[in-house]
Amino acid sequence: MQKKVYAITAFFMFAVLIVSLVSTDSSAYPGGISGRTRKTSSAGCGGCHSQGSTITGTITGPDSVLAGQTVTYTLTLNCASGSGKYGVDIAAKNGTLAPISGQGLTLMSSELVQSTGITYVNPKVITFSYTAPGAAGSDTLYATIDRGHSGAYNWTPNKGFKVYTLTGVVNNQTPVNYYLSQNYPNPFNPVTRINYGVLKASNVKITVYNLLGKEIASLVNEYQNAGNYYAIFDASKYSSGIYYYKIESGDFTEVKKMSLIK
User: Fold this and answer.
1) pLDDT tens, 193-229?
2) How many angstroms separate the CA atoms of 19 and 169, rounded?
3) Which CATH fold would you assign to the domain 167-260?
4) With contact defined as beta carbons under 8 Å apart, do 28 and 21 qualify?
5) CATH number, domain 25-164
6) CA–CA distance, 223 with 160 (Å, rounded to integer)
7) Which of 10, 47, 84, 105 has the most CB atoms less than 10 A away?
């Protein structure tokens, strides 16, 4: 008899728990849950939500980030139907994420999730901080989004971008001649790469000038061994127009033109 009472009690408590979970708002996880951005059959938010297109999102921000630089990205949510608050899980493949005050996010296991459930507005724009790795390469941002605990979840399209360093070595092979390549891309906005070759070890200068001949940036000014190198020009703070870049290495000097179009 006693075992029967225990069994009935346990069943009742389980039923209460199920009812409680089904009736919760956006959040059975009001403080967020991480590890849900992976696109596999057991990931996303499938434990509590059905996947669907009721809610959509987009991550926007820079297409290239300087190694070690901290920039801001934006997650925009759109949801015309359903009920409850928003929930999110934002992750970076290589870089570091951090919440921005007032955006309703908190850091959990290196990912950004809602801190208490994000109040519904359509569209809802959420900004967050991203710091690039210290080395050149590429990175990707991912996000899983939902609205309401019993609502649908979805993945946003991945946001891929380049991580670059201002100068670097292409290879240490000695070129046949000194050279200064045309920047790529050209026209550009706002970052472009300049390849060049050093025939003999010497001090190398690469300088950028505006259309009036005024020096506006020094990309390289150092002693370099023979080899093939690159320099990056970030024109984020400059206006659209024609610019010139010049290399000086030993007795070698050359000037080329590039176009910034914003």
Assistant:
1) 999 999 999 999 999 999 999 999 999 999 999 999 9
2) 62
3) Immunoglobulin-like (2.60.40)
4) yes
5) 2.60.40.10
6) 35
7) 105
